[in-house]
Amino acid sequence: MIAEDSVLLRAGVERLLADEGIETVAAVGDGPGLLTALDEHRPDLAIVDVRMPPTFRDEGLRAALEARKRFPGTSVLVLSQYVEEHYAIELIGSGAAGVGYLLKERVADVADFVDAVQRVADGGTSIDPEVISQLLGRRRNPLDALTPRELEVLGLMAEGRSNTAIARGLVVSDGAVEKHIGNIFAKLNLEPTSDEHRRVRAVLTYLSHS
């Protein structure tokens, strides 16, 4: 299936795939449509544009991440003009199987594009070298691995707030805060030791990189 707000591009990709014997079971123009179509058709692959209505910022990529959570094993190939670094890191980090991220302006060969489509649909990967280059440069700051909510939780930790105080401030459960903190420790590679306090180490990382 294809999720792309440009009618012409959507039709063009669908025709190109049809010429290669690849059936498009649904073509939609926004994130909610993507999730609805995935639930209905369960396709082998979703080709997703990053920027779609209503704000044309990152709706497609966020919908792709939600799709991977709702429908585990869904293969997603992002086809975009931009590298949305934060969500790209999260998408690629959600599991290497069945993930692709290609830049539209660098897709110059139909055969290469079709090969990427088939590879990702089969559970492989296809990441544009330019995407890798940008992500590696950004990952030099360890905080870039965190989601906006995890970064918010870490900031409140740096203010000295307890889990209960953080939960109250964010209007979430204590369990949700504990989960966020666990994710923070994992993404910052803070393994539990008897000699150091991971919470303090996480805060020090935040203060030195924010």
Q: Give a count of the beta strands, DSSP E runs of length 2 or more.
A: 6
Classify the helix fraction into a percent range: 40-55%
Low-confidence stretches: none
Strand order of the largest sheet: 2-1-3-4-5-6
What's the topology here?
Blueprint: E1 2-3, H1 7-19, E2 27-28, H2 31-41, E3 46-48, H3 59-70, E4 76-80, H4 85-93, E5 99-103, H5 110-121, E6 125-127, H6 129-138, H7 148-158, H8 163-170, H9 174-187, H10 198-209
Parallel strand pairs: 1-2, 1-3, 3-4, 4-5, 5-6
Helix pairs in contact: 2-3, 3-4, 7-9, 7-10, 8-9
Structural description of this entry:
With 210 residues, the protein is α/β, with parallel strands linked by helices. The chain folds into two domains: 2-138, Response regulator (Rossmann fold); 142-209, Arc Repressor Mutant, subunit A (Orthogonal Bundle), CATH 1.10.10. It has helices at 7-19, 31-41, 59-70, 85-93, 110-121, 129-138, 148-158, 163-170, 174-187, 198-209, and strands spanning 2-3, 27-28, 46-48, 76-80, 99-103, 125-127. It has a six-stranded parallel beta sheet, with helices on both faces. The radius of gyration is 19 Å and the shape is elongated.
